[in-house]
């Protein structure tokens, strides 16, 4: 794997709070070239498929930005994702909900290779995600992710957090990367926080900084994993407002959230997961007013309104 890809991979891995990297110093980890440590998962049967090493073959997915076909994943013997079939078009906003442990995080983490699926296939913008990591520079860099715990680099300022990947992965000029970062910090309404460190910001400000950081890579898809659930209640709205703004601008979004007001306002579809499966998929109005599945009904009845 070349150094840039590795950097990008590690930035994602670090940003995810991956325990495999947690004991190493960040700069060492980031600039170490070479193979990623073994993930301990079963080898994907897709790795054995034909095709040239490192060459991304485009797959015709018609209008699907993301295609998941019969996707399965195990953690050891535990079948965490089962028979996942999902097609997401450009510009669609999907809300994923379901009980804790139902596989929501695992599903979206498979889309940017923070986790590897083992059966079925995932195609992002026409490129299949396989173990041939070289071909992932395209699709991975097209997916931005925002985590529950913000996952900003604590030793970098907000501006440096925003310019790190554009400078190192995209090789942007510093002046351009900083101008772009400032534009996005304006957009999430925290330009005045640019020279501060994450620990000096409120939770809501940190999460908006994390959204700006993801946008600085010009993603085609944004994944959000419970972006407001670690926030104090008074900060939830400022983050949701930022996300509504993104949705209104036409960003393709997959949002794991239990913020049902957000789901009603912006989602084209709500996906309900239980025990590793998608058990219901519907437009928000029908999902909330007339859930078809017993488990969705129970889940909705337990949410606070
Ligand atoms: N790295 C892991 N190793 C083993 N089990 C895991 C790992 N990550 C998650 N799990 C388990 O997989 C299930 C689904 O987890 P997750 O995708 O995080 O669910 P959700 O986001 O819906 O709460 C849970 O039972 C969780 O304990
Ligand atoms: Mg989760």
Automatic annotation (TrEMBL):
GO molecular function: ATP binding; hydrolase activity
The protein's Enzyme Commission number: 3.6.3.-
SUPFAM superfamilies attached to this UniProt entry: P-loop containing nucleoside triphosphate hydrolases
Domain ABC transporter: 66-300
InterPro entries per UniProt: AAA+_ATPase (IPR003593), ABC_transporter-like_ATP-bd (IPR003439), ABC_transporter-like_CS (IPR017871), MetN_ABC_transporter-like (IPR050086), P-loop_NTPase (IPR027417)
Record-linked Pfam families: ABC_tran
Keywords from the named record: ATP-binding, Hydrolase, Nucleotide-binding, Transport
Keyword ATP-binding: yes
Claim: Hydrolase is one of the keywords in the record: yes
PANTHER family noted in UniProt: AMINO ACID IMPORT ATP-BINDING PROTEIN, PHOSPHONATES IMPORT ATP-BINDING PROTEIN PHNC
Family: Belongs to the ABC transporter superfamily.
Protein's UniProt name: General L-amino acid transport system ATP-binding protein
Originating organism: Aquamicrobium terrae
């Amino acid at each position: 794997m070349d150094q840039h890809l590795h950097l990008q991979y590690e930035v994602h891995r670090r940003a995810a709070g991956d325990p495999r990297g947690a004991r190493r110093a960040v700069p060492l980890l980031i600039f170490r070239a070479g193979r990623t440590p073994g993930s301990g998962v079963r080898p994907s049967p897709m790795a054995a498929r034909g095709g040239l090493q490192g060459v991304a073959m485009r797959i015709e997915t018609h209008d699907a930005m993301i295609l998941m076909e019969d996707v399965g994943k195990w953690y050891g013997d535990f079948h965490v994702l089962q028979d996942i079939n999902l097609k997401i078009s450009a510009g669609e906003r999907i809300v994923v909900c379901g009980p804790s442990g139902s596989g929501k995080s695992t599903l979206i983490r498979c889309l940017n290779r923070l986790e590897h699926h083992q059966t079925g296939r995932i195609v992002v913008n026409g490129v299949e995600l396989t173990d041939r990591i070289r071909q992932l520079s395209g699709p991975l860099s097209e997916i931005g992710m925002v985590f529950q715990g913000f996952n900003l680099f604590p030793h970098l300022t907000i501006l440096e957090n925003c310019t790190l990947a554009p400078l190192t992965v995209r090789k942007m000029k510093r002046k351009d990367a900083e101008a772009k970062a400032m534009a996005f910090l304006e957009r999430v309404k925290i330009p005045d926080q640019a020279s501060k460190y994450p620990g000096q910001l409120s939770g809501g400000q940190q999460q908006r900084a994390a959204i700006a950081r993801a946008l600085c890579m010009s993603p085609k898809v944004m994944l959000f994993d419970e972006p407001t659930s670690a926030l104090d209640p008074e900060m939830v709205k400022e983050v949701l407002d930022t996300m509504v703004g993104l949705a209104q601008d036409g960003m393709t979004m997959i949002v794991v959230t239990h913020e049902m007001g957000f789901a009603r306002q912006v989602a084209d579809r709500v996906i309900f997961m239980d025990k590793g499966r998608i058990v219901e998929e519907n437009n928000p109005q029908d999902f909330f007013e007339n859930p078809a599945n017993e488990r969705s009904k129970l889940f909705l009845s337990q949410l606070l309104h």
